[in-house]
Amino acid sequence: MVDWKDELGLAHLVTELSGNDLLILAEARYRQKAKSAHPDQGGDPLKMIRLALYTKTFDESTSGLVLVVIATSNSPLSRKVMETSEELRISHPSRLNHAGRNVYVVFPISYGGCAASIQTYDISKSGDLSFNGGIMTGNNSGSGLLQAPAIIANDTFAYAASDFECCGGSPGWSGYNLGSSGEMENLTFNLSPYSPQLPAGYVPVYVTAGTGNYLAAIVSLNNGPETYAPPQLASYTVNDHGDLSTTSTATNMPYPSLGGVEFLGETLNMSPSGKLLAIAGSLGVQIFHFNGAAPITPYSAVLTTDEIDHIHWDNSNHLFALSDKTNKLYVFTVTPTTITPVAGSPFAIPATPNALVVVPK
């Protein structure tokens, strides 16, 4: 995880400056670093992604500065607006494109309120954000999203599962096209072939992107109003028009051993190699083999006994799994043939976490 004070070189000043003074200095350091890290300046996209977006607020109840940093192009950021009242906390799932030049933020009107929008922001050479348009989104006449859209590797299309608790409807697919200037636009696309191999009653619960033009999704058979079969894992291929095809069937999709359909946070995440798929839930975390267009296949048993809310990979075969409920961070070294806990795992987190950021090196 990233400590923003170390990232911006401010650790030695935390005890000397007030919150507002520290915030001003943090902004200046951020812009200074972004000038050299931005891809348009010849910088490394990963460095720009590391700096690209942060949330800055001053929490009056704790007199603490909160700074959250996006770490990887496939890491959704749970932006938190901290208020003195817990009821006023708002979550905005966000995602950067792979080039590190745009960030997309989901703005629900209210949880389950049947409306949501996605706003696009450009990241300038100096590191500033500028608004680049917004769209109303979702199915069921604008139902909300519980995830930021998953963007495929070439930054052309993105996909998300809609909020099935909204408007009394079941989950649905939402698709997006990324325009020439990076703006996210609604996309009409086909799910083909979708039957008879994979019955039309299967609905998406969470979607993540892999390498190339592949997606993985948690899907569940909708057996009636608010009634869902145990979730399964499906793979999809995206064509040049944004249409999805699948070789997954009701009989070859594996069942995670993590209980029923649920939303806890970042519940599905693909390794940078595109060969491993991690899924998290209230019963722990589990790993599967991802085989591109071919069906997903089982790999590990459940690796933890704690609820896992956030999962991310680095570029060195490490899977990080964070439990908000137990304040523990699990770390595993994972290859297609071996899974080994890192020495000292799980690591105790001194305060209750609400997000996980992993910086590849």
Main traits of this protein?
single chain, 361 residues, mainly beta, Methylamine Dehydrogenase, Chain H, 5-stranded antiparallel beta sheet, 25 strands, 8% helix
| Gap from first CA to last CA | 12 Å
β-strand number: 25
Structural class: mainly beta
Strand content: 35-45%
Tally of alpha and pi helices: 3
Let me know the largest β-sheet: 5 strands, antiparallel
What does the model show?
By secondary structure, the chain is mostly beta strands. It has 2 domains: 150 residues, no CATH class; 173 residues, 7 Propeller (Methylamine Dehydrogenase, Chain H). It is built from 3 helices and 25 strands. The strands form 6 sheets. Strands 3-4-5-6-7 form a 5-stranded antiparallel β-sheet, with no helix packed on it. Strands 12, 13, 14, 15 and 16 form a 5-stranded antiparallel β-sheet that branches. Strands 21, 22, 23, 24 and 25 form a 5-stranded antiparallel β-sheet that branches. The chain is globular, with a radius of gyration of 20 Å. About 11% of the residues have low confidence.
